[in-house]
Write a structure and sequence with these properties.
The chain is α/β, with parallel strands linked by helices. The protein has four domains: 65 residues, DNA polymerase, domain 1; 91 residues, OB fold (Dihydrolipoamide Acetyltransferase, E2P) (Beta Barrel); 190 residues, 3-Layer(aba) Sandwich (Rossmann fold), CATH 3.40.50.300; 157 residues, 3-Layer(aba) Sandwich (Rossmann fold). 39% of the residues lie in helices and 18% in strands. Strands 11-12-10-13-14-9-15 form a seven-stranded parallel beta sheet, with helices on both faces. A six-stranded parallel beta sheet has the order 16-21-20-17-19-18, with helices on both faces. Helix 12 links the parallel strand 13 and strand 14. The two termini are 25 Å apart.
Length: 677
């Protein structure tokens, strides 16, 4: 029985060597081959010489007036010259490195050639030879490599379609296809591979984009379903009244966004599977207090909770802010970092095992083997991207399959939230607390450097502090350090001894970094010159000025994160971008920084400027690679596909309905769906 999951080796003429060649393109099955679409189309409609323009790609039809001439001029280098009579004019067509075409040009026969027209020499650089009797005016151009030719791939696609067209099913259910006026799978394949008109390609491409996104989102939903059913966790039955009392005791009112996110997390905690949720929010949006409410909720359910952060300074800062809040509710909170003495560590370990500690705040010291909990039920991982996969996994595996809430202050574009984090639940705080003043951002050219110095002095006179970020040189840490040291000397010359200037860089020991940051936090240092190691999340309310040199070297996300180090106090905060950008993209980044403080707007702008080629390419490992759809340009389609996929798994979690059988069978080829039975 024929199945689209059959190997391509079932096709006539496909032996071991050709199978390997197809595999190199990611083609393993008949389904892979049929849905391996052209990336563009050449218009093969024959043109008149009177219509053509210089360097235009055109098709000419004419009579071969002489035997072609093949010239060889080096290893594997040759030139085939053909003379055609086109509309009473002789046109010379040149093919490079296609010697096998020589026998196709027989004198006195009519042929058609596609290529690039050279107006000056009245000739054509040939790209393709074909019969002028074909029905199609469009020719698909496929992405191939040295292992396989275009012509071979096209031949195999035709062969596969002829043999398997009777068993082509439909992955997108009929009700969804009707709702959005989409073609079925067979029509998509025909329109993409064998179009007669541009309108056919357009209709097929529109349907193919939706189908690709829909299948991707269904895979995500199936994986999430399997993960949940195979990963039983705790149902944390927290005490609602106690949690409400805790919220009422807070010295401020939660924003509507915070309330919404708290409800999302609370609902997740009650479910009987392990939470896998990402909490994202812009700098200063109030993620920490949301995490505190969740930690407290877990304690009221009778479990211990833990908060893991990337640095000792940040852990200490969280402890000093949260411990008084928890103490009011008779919750015992303890701090554990690398600086904790052995004597105190032993005491903490004992109290944890005995259950005398309710909430543990700390660094990666939390995941050491010596740290044991009595009944860990809830874990928060702050700035989760700063921890490795194994570190996050180690904390997840402590205790009783605890619920895990990961947090990030790097706003994720909606596109990436749907694709990269599709297997996770994502909660977003998209509102800043009232009264927070936007950071005023200005762009200065390099020759305005003295204005930056004068601005810093005015802020220091008002008893404020300043961050100064040195240029980023990706290729060399040594150069990074040298730049920072030069900038440090310049600021010392300008401001010492009246003001204290300190240097912070990546090659310092952790102890030295902590010492410098602590001195800055206490206002013992007024100007901190640093590379990009400035700790994420560290709160220095008195620092109201950020100067970033060669700001055009940084991405939008990094610029926004650096800017977020200021603006945490009551006074007006400022960010000065010093740069002389050399391209339009860099100019657009700097202009965007001066126009908005919204990290989500900037993240979308960053994605737009960098383009899907960078974001969804090899540099960003683990991000999905779509063949037809562009997650940025086609975001609305992606969003609809996600909604439809989610609804299917809500209505029919095991995909048992008749209209979902083709989809179920397809997903089983890549995901084990037995658990959905």
């Amino acid at each position: 029985m024929l199945k689209l999951s059959d190997s391509v080796e079932t096709l006539s003429g496909v032996g071991a060597k050709r199978v390997t060649a197809l595999n190199s393109l990611g083609i393993f099955t008949i389904n892979d081959l049929l849905f391996y679409f052209p990336f563009r189309y050449d218009d093969l409609k024959v043109k008149s010489l009177a219509e053509v323009t210089d360097q235009e790609k055109i098709t000419l039809k004419g009579t071969v007036i002489a035997a072609p001439i093949l010239n060889r001029f080096g290893p594997n280098k040759n030139r085939l010259i053909v003379r055609l009579l086109v509309e009473h004019q002789v046109v010379i067509v040149t093919f490079f490195n296609q010697p096998w075409l020589k026998d196709r040009f027989i004198p006195d026969t009519v042929v058609a050639v596609f290529g690039k027209w050279d107006q000056r020499r009245r000739g054509l650089t040939g790209m393709k030879f074909f019969s002028p009797k074909g029905d199609n005016d469009l020719a698909g151009i496929y992405s191939v490599n040295k292992n396989i030719r275009q012509s071979t791939l096209i031949k195999l696609v035709k062969l596969a379609f002829e043999k398997y067209q009777s068993v082509i099913g439909n992955l997108v259910p009929i009700d969804i296809r009707q709702r959005y006026r989409l073609l079925d799978d067979r029509e998509i394949i025909t329109g993409m591979h064998f179009p007669k008109t541009a309108a056919e390609v357009k209709a097929a491409h529109r349907s193919a984009v939706f189908r690709e996104f829909f299948v991707f989102e269904c895979r995500m939903q199936a994986m999430r379903q399997k993960e949940r059913q195979g990963n039983q966790g705790l149902s944390l039955k927290y005490q609602l009244a106690a949690v409400q009392d805790f919220i009422h005791e807070l010295p401020f009112e939660l924003t509507q966004a915070q309330k919404r996110v708290v409800n999302e997390i609370a609902a997740d905690m009650k479910r009987p599977y392990q939470m896998n949720r990402l909490l994202q929010g812009d700098v200063g949006s109030g993620k920490t207090i949301v995490a505190a409410i969740a930690l407290f909720s877990a304690v009221t359910a009778g479990y211990q909770a833990a908060l893991m952060v990337p640095t000792e300074i940040l852990a200490t800062q969280h402890f000093e802010k949260l411990q008084p809040l928890f103490a009011k509710m008779n919750v015992v909170t303890t701090l554990l970092t690398g600086a904790t003495t052995n004597k105190n560590r032993r005491k903490i370990d004992e109290n944890l095992v005995q259950g005398r500690v309710n909430i543990l705040i700390g660094t990666h010291a939390l995941i050491q083997e010596s740290v044991h909990f009595k009944n860990l039920g809830f874990v928060v991982i702050d700035e989760q991207h700063r921890f490795g996969v194994n570190q996050r996994k180690a904390l997840r595996e402590k205790g009783l399959h605890p619920d895990v809430l990961m947090m990030t202050a790097t706003p994720i574009p909606r596109t990436l939230a749907i694709t990269t984090y599709g297997e996770m639940d994502v909660s977003t705080i998209d509102q800043l607390p009232s009264g927070r003043k936007p950071i005023k951002t200005y762009w200065l050219k390099n020759n305005q450097d003295q204005q930056a110095f004068a601005f810093v002095r005015r802020q220091l006179v008002q008893h404020n502090q300043a961050f100064v970020i040195s240029p980023l040189i990706e290729e060399s840490e040594t150069m990074d350090l040298k730049n920072a040291e030069l900038l440090y000397e310049r600021y010392r010359e300008a401001f010492a001894p009246e003001y204290e200037v300190a240097l912070l860089h990546g090659q310092m020991s952790n102890d030295d970094k902590n010492t410098v940051m602590a001195a800055f936090a206490k206002n013992e240092v007024q100007i901190l010159v640093a590379t990009t190691v400035v700790e994420v999340g560290v709160d220095v309310p008195n620092a109201n000025t950020m100067i970033i040199y060669d700001a055009d070297r940084f991405g939008l996300s990094q610029l926004h994160q650096l800017r977020g180090r200021v603006g945490r106090g009551q006074q007006q905060a400022y960010c000065l971008l010093v740069a002389q950008p050399k391209n339009e993209v860099a100019v657009a980044r700097l202009q965007a920084m001066t126009e908005t403080n919204d990290g989500f707007v900037l993240s979308e702008k960053d994605l737009e400027l960098r383009g899907p080629g960078d974001v969804f390419g090899q540099k960003q490992s683990g991000l999905p690679d779509f063949q037809i759809g562009d997650p940025v340009a086609d975001f609305n389609v992606l969003q609809v596909a996600q909604t439809e996929a989610q609804q299917i798994f809500v209505d029919d979690p095991s995909l048992s309905k008749a209209e979902h059988q083709t989809l179920r069978t397809f997903l089983k080829t890549t995901i084990d769906l037995k658990r959905l039975d």
